[in-house]
């Protein structure tokens, strides 16, 4: 195996590791957009392989998918056509005018610092028409208050792709000073390659902290809850209303940019 980020460097492997045959995240997003009467132009920030962007395109929206990874974007253009795909950094971007910005599977938490969060929300505000929506789905920092179940022992996983078996051992730790959840994932394969360690981190963002950032940038929170959502257990099903608590490990946000 070579260095870099195995999954973002190999988008097909990412899709094999995280199959989403029912496109639940995209369907949940489309449900939020419809329920709150969003216009057609959608920006998917941190679009990854483009699966969700392409589903939203198929639902009749005019979609731009943006990601920092050129490899992800090349895969998206080849395998999930329809949307326009562009390279952008969610810490600060200027990609035109939209009726909604969506940010799925914790992409928003790649804003590690307050300045990066401010940069993201200022860019969203600039991108959105008055009354435009921000729809996000992310880990809940508050889940880790008094709970260690995700921290106590490594998560071990294995899957086979193109005849080769990949094993991963994932350890999560809390960095209280940086307010980050740090992940170390060590990959091994059965082809004799040396183990490949990879490091990433997400901001540990708390629901009231998120509300404060949103208010400061001119957003009204319409929904903020821990499920049901596309990555909750049990997962969201069409027609289910939003929840009312923020205790679980995923947060679901719908916020509207004030019209004045
Ligand atoms: C966990 S994946 C989520 C992909 C997709 N939204 C999904 O739900 O399948 C996170 C994505 O964020 C991208 N990313 C990481 N940091 C970024 C940044 N600063 N700006 C834009 N994209 C970023 C990665 O390249 C990756 O494709």
From TrEMBL:
<dbReference type="GO" id="GO:0061542">
    <property type="term" value="F:3-demethylubiquinol 3-O-methyltransferase activity"/>
</dbReference>
<feature type="region of interest" description="Disordered">
    <location>
        <begin position="226"/>
        <end position="249"/>
    </location>
</feature>
<dbReference type="InterPro" id="IPR041698">
    <property type="entry name" value="Methyltransf_25"/>
</dbReference>
<dbReference type="GO" id="GO:0102208">
    <property type="term" value="F:2-polyprenyl-6-hydroxyphenol methylase activity"/>
</dbReference>
<dbReference type="GO" id="GO:0032259">
    <property type="term" value="P:methylation"/>
</dbReference>
<feature type="domain" description="Methyltransferase">
    <location>
        <begin position="42"/>
        <end position="132"/>
    </location>
</feature>
<protein>
    <submittedName>
        <fullName>Class I SAM-dependent methyltransferase</fullName>
        <ecNumber>2.1.1.222</ecNumber>
        <ecNumber>2.1.1.64</ecNumber>
    </submittedName>
</protein>
<dbReference type="Pfam" id="PF13649">
    <property type="entry name" value="Methyltransf_25"/>
</dbReference>
<keyword id="KW-0489">Methyltransferase</keyword>
<dbReference type="InterPro" id="IPR029063">
    <property type="entry name" value="SAM-dependent_MTases_sf"/>
</dbReference>
<keyword id="KW-0808">Transferase</keyword>
């Amino acid at each position: 195996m070579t260095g870099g980020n195995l999954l973002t460097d190999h988008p097909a492997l990412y899709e094999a590791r995280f199959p989403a045959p029912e496109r639940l995240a995209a369907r949940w997003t489309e449900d939020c957009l419809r329920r709150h009467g969003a216009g057609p132009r959608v920006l998917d920030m941190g679009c990854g392989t483009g699966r969700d962007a392409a589903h939203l395109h198929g639902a009749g929206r005019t979609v731009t998918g943006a990601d920092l990874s050129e490899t992800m974007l090349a895969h998206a253009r080849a395998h999930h056509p329809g949307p326009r795909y562009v390279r952008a950094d969610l810490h600060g971007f200027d990609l035109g005018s939209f009726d909604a910005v969506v940010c799925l599977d914790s992409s928003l938490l790649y804003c590690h610092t307050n300045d990066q969060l401010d940069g993201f929300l200022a860019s969203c505000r600039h991108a959105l028409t008055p009354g435009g929506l921000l729809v996000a789905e992310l880990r809940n920092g508050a889940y880790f208050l008094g709970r260690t179940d995700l921290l106590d022992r490594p998560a071990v996983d294995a899957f086979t792709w193109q005849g080769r078996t990949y094993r991963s051992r994932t350890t999560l730790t809390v960095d209280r000073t940086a307010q980050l959840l740090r992940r170390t994932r060590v990959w091994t394969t059965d082809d004799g390659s040396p183990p490949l360690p990879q490091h990433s981190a997400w901001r540990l963002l708390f629901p009231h902290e998120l509300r404060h950032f949103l208010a400061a940038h001119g957003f009204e929170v319409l929904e903020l809850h821990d499920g049901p959502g596309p990555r909750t257990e049990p997962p969201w099903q069409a027609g289910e209303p939003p929840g009312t608590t923020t205790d679980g490990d995923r947060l679901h946000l719908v916020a509207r940019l004030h019209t004045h």
